[in-house]
Amino acid sequence: MVRPLGLLRSIRTRSILTLSCALLVGFILLICSQSASAQTCAGGNALVWKQYATPLSDGLIHIAVNYSGGSTAPTATIKNLAQGAVADWNLYKCITGVVFEESTSSADLYFEYTTDESLTGSCAAYRPLDHTIYHGPEFQTRVAGLSAVQSKAAFAHELGHFLGLGHTTSPATIMNQPDGMYGFHVGTIHYAI
Known about the structure:
The chain is α/β, with parallel strands linked by helices. The protein has two domains: 1-38; 48-192, Collagenase (Catalytic Domain) (3-Layer(aba) Sandwich), CATH 3.40.390. It has helices at residues 4-38, 76-90, 93-96, 117-120, 137-145, 148-162, and strands at 61-69, 98-102, 109-113, 124-127, 132-135.
């Protein structure tokens, strides 16, 4: 036999749990809607690759990535940073609808070393018409003075541009680009998408 007082406590506990869950879901939706409103899409030719892309049977667009673009092979450190940034974005493939896969031949996206700093922006820069994320001597110098997380964030940021994301100001995401700093804000990818 259930006592009325015990039943009342049980109902109250369930109501509190239901209310707590509803508040948590509401809070998450609020955060997501704010981050979505802070995100801008890159304009121009940023998504030129997408007009030729078709999702495969898994529902994802598969993007071939070549880490050895250019006449100079990347250093092991640079290649690891690029691969790490790609791996980070691949964690969100179900949200972006894109999965990056390594290729040693022709590709949809290249990471390329160049001494032409106008292509790199003195760091790393995605150039949509070339389907390339360029990096050069300045970036390699910066890598020596930054943590691996900060260095990888530069490539993750450029991959965001490849996916069509523009810069953000708030909240803190990988797509923030603070003025006058040697690196990108090491924010999350999650809030950028």
